[in-house]
Structure to design on (332 residues):
């Protein structure tokens, strides 16, 4: 006898093969527009569903109240700062995410931000395209000089899996000296990459590239503030590929405007997208990207498949591979 399939809503389009996999197990409805379903559109879809696959947007009390049957929310992202953990605990709703599959892709992007900031790639690309490269301007032109990345000191704040993938590139590829700051010592990074643990203050003082990779949690909101920029070298670059809210953006803007630091490479903003009059958007020494850390076709497809497998396992009553740590207690 065939069982009635559980119902899910998918709030953005996912690759066909991932949808086909989900449909073998579940009854699926999927947002059919571009981007993601609006909040209002999403809330209208939740009355009868057991599961929701999403790539962001708050999973809060309002949403949970509109979804009386909801048992699982599967994020297509490693970050899950969109989960209201307390509200989900109270309602017994499991939350899953997509770690591991994106580590190398995000680490590649962080290296790209480091290289683009230090060697002024975006700025000088614009220079050439604007027709400013005239005869006589060449290799000796000091105004085009950047800073060396190789053999410089990188300081990684948040040495998780992505931090380690950055460490590997920085040390093995660019001979960089590696410092890190983390809640706990990471023996593996120390042994494999010669990572040296530092207090936050010492890391900021010593690094040429400060890379912020800490997840956004209530404890890491504005983790980097004015007093932290003041500790950095005036030649240093600040790189953020975690979440915009992990840094006090006003303090970052001030540090750049006053020459407290030399530049920044940013994949994330607070809010996203940034408002058109955000000063960061008109600073030539700041590289700005639209939150594309994991955005390659393969990695995004792999993430969608991991999210799908998390959902199917959870709704089948199995232990899904990637339940977020704060909600593991719900598995009984
Ligand atoms: C993630 O997976 O958390 C990336 O930042 C994309 O949201």
């Amino acid at each position: 006898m065939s069982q009635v399939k559980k119902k899910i809503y998918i709030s953005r389009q996912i690759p066909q093969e991932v949808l086909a996999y989900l449909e073998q197990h579940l009854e699926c409805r999927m947002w059919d527009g571009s981007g993601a379903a609006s909040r209002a559109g999403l809330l209208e879809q939740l009355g009868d569903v057991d599961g929701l696959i999403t790539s962001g947007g708050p999973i809060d009390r309002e949403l949970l109240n509109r979804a009386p049957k909801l048992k699982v929310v599967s994020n297509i992202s490693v970050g899950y700062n969109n989960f209201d953990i307390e509200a989900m605990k109270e309602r017994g709703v499991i939350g899953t995410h997509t770690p591991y599959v994106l580590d190398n892709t995000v680490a590649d992007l962080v290296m790209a931000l480091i290289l683009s900031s230090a060697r002024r790639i975006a700025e000088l690309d614009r220079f050439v395209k604007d027709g400013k490269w005239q005869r006589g301007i060449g290799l000796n032109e000091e105004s085009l000089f950047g800073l060396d990345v190789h053999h410089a000191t990188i300081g990684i704040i948040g040495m998780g899996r992505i931090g380690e993938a950055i460490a590997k590139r920085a040390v093995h590829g660019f001979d960089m000296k590696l410092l890190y700051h983390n809640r706990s010592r990471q023996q593996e990074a120390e042994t494999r990459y010669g990572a040296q643990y530092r207090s936050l203050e010492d890391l900021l003082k010593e690094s040429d590239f400060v890379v912020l990779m800490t997840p956004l949690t209530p404890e890491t909101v504005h983790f980097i503030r004015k007093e932290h920029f003041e500790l950095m070298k005036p030649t240093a670059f600040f790189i953020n590929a975690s979440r915009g809210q992990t840094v006090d953006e006003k303090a970052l803007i001030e540090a750049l405007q006053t020459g407290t630091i030399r530049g920044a490479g940013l994949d994330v903003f607070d809010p996203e997208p940034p408002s058109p009059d955000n000063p960061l958007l008109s600073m030539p020494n700041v590289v700005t990207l639209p939150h594309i850390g994991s955005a390659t076709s393969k990695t995004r497809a792999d993430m969608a498949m991991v999210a799908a497998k998390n959902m199917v396992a959870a709704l089948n009553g199995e232990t899904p591979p990637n339940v977020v740590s704060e909600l593991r207690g719900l598995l009984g």
